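A quick word before the example. In earlier lectures we treated sequence and structure as two separate objects. From today on, think of them as two lines of the same record. Here is Beta-ketoacyl-[acyl-carrier-protein] synthase III written that way.
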Amino acid sequence: MTTRIMGTGSCLPQTVVTNDDLAKIMDTSDEWIRTRTGIRERRLAKEETTSFMCCEAALRALEDAGMSGEEIELIIVGTLTGDYVTPSTACEVQAKIGAKRAVAFDVNAACSGFLFALHIAHAYLQAGIYQNALILGAETLSKIMDWSDRSTCVLFGDGAGAAVLKRDERGVLSFDMGCDGAKGHVLSCKGRPNNNPLVSHPTEPEFVHMDGQEVYKFAVGRVPKSIQSVLAQSGMDAGDISWFVLHQANIRILQSVAKRLGVSEEKFPISLDHCGNISAASVPILLDEMNQKGMLKRGDKIVLSGFGGGLSWGSVLLEW
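And the structure line, produced from the sequence above:
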């Protein structure tokens, strides 16, 4: 027995913000953003919150799986932009979808968050502790961006993606997970500083800081190795894989990974052009888009891979 994805769902904010829209408020252009990143537009939240988008994505995944919230036993949300420090986003989802039986918690592995949630849920299911799970990746990254920093803020968007998992005879075949905390500060966002009777700090908000070149070098070096690891564990090579569903960070990263694996870029679907980088939500949103378009066929071998803040990475090989 292993863990199988039974249904997918996603939710994006209603408001579309194009590169031309950003050019009206900062020194940039559609050509500058598009040629460097592959991004043409992204969705930014107005009334939507992280938990709202999670709940919408969760309900759609449950419908796709033919299940109700009451049946779910475990909920894990990968996010770094929850609405509250506590309660967790997962507990918010549990309440709103009526998953009264479910244990619920968040994990923060940044852009690898959905893969970490999948790995954790898989372990629970394989141990026989739970029979099913709902996992999500969700971010409202727009609230932690410095919108005067054109080198960073133009990359990111908001949204949520979800998947329903069950114990089954087909599904997950192999995992590769890892972290390099020594290089973590090349992509960071500070939390609240100490503020107590002994020390006081101003409470100005902190924003995401990124060394783009270092993140790029990490991704193009580590991701192919991670994918090769899950292939080797299952005795397969890249030619056996129908789709490589990767975190949507930058089109140049996707092209480099495809080249290093010796695989056609046609096997690397993208949502980057119309979603931007949504950190933990990128992989499940793209997977749901593919599912809704009928691109995923029973028996397809698929690689999912997330990578980013931490620095962290995670890849899984599964049979659809």
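Notice the following. The longest strand covers residues 158-168. We will return to this example when we discuss secondary structure assignment.
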